[in-house]
Amino acid sequence: MKPDICTSIMCSDLGADYCQQCSHGVYSGEGIDKNGKLWRWEFQAYYGPMFLKKDGEPLKNQPERENHPAWEPFEVWLKKHNKKRFKREAKE
User: Fold this and answer.
1) Per-residue pLDDT tens for 2-45?
2) Residue 16 and residue 36: Cα distance in Å, rounded?
């Protein structure tokens, strides 16, 4: 899975595959929790998720507790993201 944004100055020098593995990649995702609420986030491997408002700005109060409804759709998304990443790495 290619990042939506990459902040690394190295990616263009090291080829397209580097960006998918580096900590500078920023991935966008969204998912619906068990209550039907849509959650949006940006994810960096180094920092983890940052949950967003509709306009794309960070939520003032980020969901912190593991039992918060936002974590379920994020964890489902992350599992799919990692599955694609590990499949790609196994081919290399």
Assistant:
1) 666 666 666 655 555 555 556 677 888 999 999 999 999 999 88
2) 37
- The tokens describing 91, both together, are 């081919």
The domain limits of the chain are 30-91
Q: What is the 3-state secondary structure (H, E, C) of the chain?
A: CCCCEECCCCHHHHCHHHHHHCCCEEEEEEEECCCCCEEEEEEECCCEEEEECCCCCECCCCCCCCCCCCHHHHHHHHHHHHHHHHHHHHHC
pTM, to two decimals: 0.73
Amino acid at 33: D
pLDDT in tens, 49-90: 999 999 999 999 999 998 999 999 999 999 988 776 555 445
CA distances from 75 to 16, 20, 78 (A): 26, 19, 5
The tokens of 17 are what?
Answer: 């595959």
